[in-house]
TrEMBL record:
It comes from the Bacteria. Keywords: Hydrolase, Protease, Serine protease, Signal. Transmembrane segments: none annotated. GO terms for biological process: proteolysis. Residues 1-19 form the signal peptide. Coiled coil: none annotated. Residues 463-671 form the Peptidase S9 prolyl oligopeptidase catalytic domain. Residues 186-278 form the Dipeptidylpeptidase IV N-terminal domain. InterPro entries: 6-blade_b-propeller_TolB-like, AB_hydrolase_fold, Peptidase_S9_cat, Peptidase_S9B_N, WD40. This is Acyl-peptide hydrolase.
Length: 673
């Protein structure tokens, strides 16, 4: 009996210890999981999704496909292994699941027969497939794939002796787009559509020409016509957004344009009854932002109308309901992602505002959803305390079907997140933000403040889980993140306030947020810190050039000089045409007035820079310019280069850890207390 008492006592102590909440640490990043790429069975019984986790041995994301039973919440693996399985899509008959996997060392198409569990690789492609779509009869799968072309070599040297070890030949480049962030220098070729037998075989190329064909496709009910979006205009290289919807005859492979206007037309989707073609688009006015609307073409009458013209938000992810009476779609509003239904006649209905972000590093909005034949909605469900799970809306009731992070975060002391609204001191414009309080926050004490600024600049943060913000909070800082003017999810006018005007009064918006928190009495004004990446890096550099109130700053992957940026960034025709009134040599004063480099003479704040050395979106030459300018100016500075990292620095978990660790170290180094 004595031994039983001792054992019971030990058990109680152990359970008590397990119940103690611990602070979030950098290494905990490897324990996080999140769901995305939702695929709902038509009968509404099973939700398929991609379950993402971080592998500590390879320092990479691992993805497998799982299912969850709607009634029992029973989880079941559909695939497994230390590789990446993604892009699940059910066959029209619901008996097979196609997906892409890297399990044999390259991305290939696989099919799983759901009744037997048999899995087969059906492709042997030389390039990665994308955008899988079943034909209506379930016999073929259409996808897009890059097709290589011969590299241009106008010069070929003669006279090389046999066995001689000469230098590698020069690389000749004459394309407008010659390098892409995350992919490096481009190979010669174009992306085309292909079809492959669902039982395996050789893929057949469907499109030709010196144009890129990718993105969502949709079939007519009889499978004879394939609708897709592409930019097949002669000037597509310099006018990259001018896409059209095209119809491809599956017998003759002839292509005909369905739309013809200046602007992007994309995501064609045929209604189940075959009568309507819905797509997304807008009239291009060469502004920094326009709302994408839902257009519906009646294939019987050839009339087109806009369904969402009353909605001052940008629409994405359209999906017809089973009766062809309307469409489900998503949009961002005030930092949250909404799913709604718009009938062909009548007013829209909001289904949920709880779609959770598929990001977990920083609190960007976003998410995915799918709808069953009877109208139930499966979606990514997340909040400030948890990354994305699988959620369900059934008969108006929202339910969480998975708990992917209870083992990782259930015993962690996370910071409480609170929404705030302020009126900008510039013009009283309403600005939304969120405050992350350190665990155990006591309003009678003084805390350092970290202002964290989102990128884009047309993007938005919201009430979503953020590993980076929580890690800063775990170290005892109050974290403020905001959606200053220029952010999306607040309407077109709000986003366009920075058209040809960035950075500008977004600085005032951010400073208003800082002043608001200081006025509450719990912020130590001697320990104000600021950081941000990409567009947030631009604003951070702008801030230290316009005020010295911050004790230290970390400028991540910034643009410092707009003149040099548009002449070195990967997507330069777009940046020149849409972000500025013209080419830099035609508007030098305008470019330089908005460049943080022009104000480097004002900087007194210790400023560290952090960028991936393979970043082609905001090339590291921008970082190097600012670093050297700060050195010449005598400002304390340091440069952190992330090896092999592109613009998405945190694609590898350890890079996210390093990013946070370096920022925290810099702030600690310059903390007066």
């Amino acid at each position: 009996m004595k031994h039983c008492v001792i054992a019971l006592g030990v058990s109680l102590v152990m359970n008590s210890a397990l119940a103690v909440e611990k602070p979030l640490e950098l290494i905990d990043v490897f324990d996080l999981e999140y769901a995305n790429q939702i695929e709902f069975s038509d009968d509404g019984k099973l939700v398929y999704f991609v379950r993402n986790r971080m592998d500590i041995k390879t320092d990479k994301k691992i993805s497998n496909i799982w299912s969850v039973d709607v009634k029992t919440k029973q989880l079941q693996p559909v695939t497994s292994g230390v590789h990446i399985d993604y892009a699940p899509i059910l066959s029209p008959q619901g008996d097979r699941l196609a997906f892409i996997s890297t399990r044999d060392g390259s991305s290939q198409i696989y099919v799983k027969w759901l009744s037997t569990g048999a899995v087969a690789k059906i492709s042997n492609l030389t390039q990665s497939p994308r955008n899988l779509t079943w034909t209506p009869d379930g016999k073929h799968i259409v996808f897009s794939q890059f097709v290589s072309a011969s590299a241009k070599t106008p010069v070929s040297l003669a006279g090389k002796p046999k066995g001689a070890d000469w230098a590698k030949p020069p690389v000749y480049i004459d394309d407008v787009y010659y390098r892409v962030d995350g992919a490096g220098y481009k190979k010669a070729g174009f992306t085309h559509l292909f079809s492959i037998d669902a039982n395996g075989g050789n893929a057949q190329q469907l499109t030709t020409g010196e144009f890129n064909h990718s993105g969502r496709v949709s079939f007519s009910a009889d499978g004879k016509t394939l609708y897709f979006s592409a930019n097949r205009h002669a000037d597509y290289r310099l006018k990259p957004t001018n896409t059209e919807v095209y119809a491809l005859d599956m017998s003759s492979l002839e292509v005909a344009a369905i739309t013809e206007r200046v602007g992007p037309d994309r995501s064609p989707t045929i209604s189940p009854n075959g009568r309507f073609l819905a797509y997304l688009g807008y009239n291009d006015k060469r502004t920094n932002y326009e709302n994408a609307d839902i257009y519906v073409l009646d294939l019987h009458s050839d009339e087109t109308r806009v369904l969402t013209q009353k909605l001052d938000r940008s629409v994405s992810h359209i999906q017809w309901d089973a009766q062809s009476r309307g469409l489900y779609y998503s949009y961002d509003s005030q930092g949250q992602t909404v799913v709604a239904h718009q009938p062909l006649k009548g007013d829209a209905k909001v289904i949920t505002k709880k779609v959770g972000s598929e990001f977990f590093g920083r609190p960007y909005s976003g998410g995915s959803f799918d709808v069953s034949a009877k109208g139930d909605v499966a979606f990514t469900l997340a909040d400030t305390q948890r990354p994305a799970d699988v959620g369900l809306i059934q008969r108006g009731k929202t339910e969480r079907l998975t708990q992917l992070n209870e083992d990782a975060l259930g015993n962690k002391a996370l910071g409480k997140v609170e929404e705030i609204w302020v009126k900008s001191k510039h013009d009283q414009l309403d600005i939304q933000g969120w405050v992350v309080y350190p665990p155990g926050f006591d309003s009678s004490k003084k805390y350092p403040l970290v202002l964290e600024i989102h990128g884009g600049p047309v993007a938005n943060y919201g009430p979503h889980f953020s590993a980076e913000a929580q890690l800063f909070a775990a170290k005892g800082s109050v974290v403020l993140y905001m959606n200053p003017r220029g952010s999306d999810s607040y309407g077109k006018a709000f986003a366009q306030t920075i058209h040809h005007n960035y950075p500008s009064n977004d600085f005032d918006d951010l400073m208003t947020g800082v002043d608001t928190l200081i006025s509450k009495g719990f912020i130590d004004e001697k320990r104000l810190f600021v950081t941000g990446g990409s567009g947030g890096g631009v604003l951070t550099a702008w801030i230290v050039g316009h005020t010295d109130r911050f004790a230290a700053a970390v400028v991540a992957k910034p643009v410092i000089n707009w003149f040099s940026f548009v002449l070195t960034a990967d997507y330069y025709p777009f940046f020149t045409d849409y972000w500025f009134p013209g080419k830099p040599w035609e508007h030098t004063e305008h470019y330089m007035k908005r460049s943080p480099i022009s104000y480097v003479g004002n900087v007194k704040t210790p400023t560290m820079l952090l960028t991936g050395d393979a970043d082609y979106r905001t090339p590291i030459s921008e970082t190097e310019q600012y670093y050297q300018a700060l050195k010449l100016q005598g400002v304390e500075t340091a440069m952190v280069r992330i090896p092999d990292a592109s613009h998405g620095i945190t694609a590898r978990p350890s890079n996210l850890m390093n990013k946070v660790a370096y920022i925290q170290w810099w702030f600690d180094k310059h903390s007066s207390n």
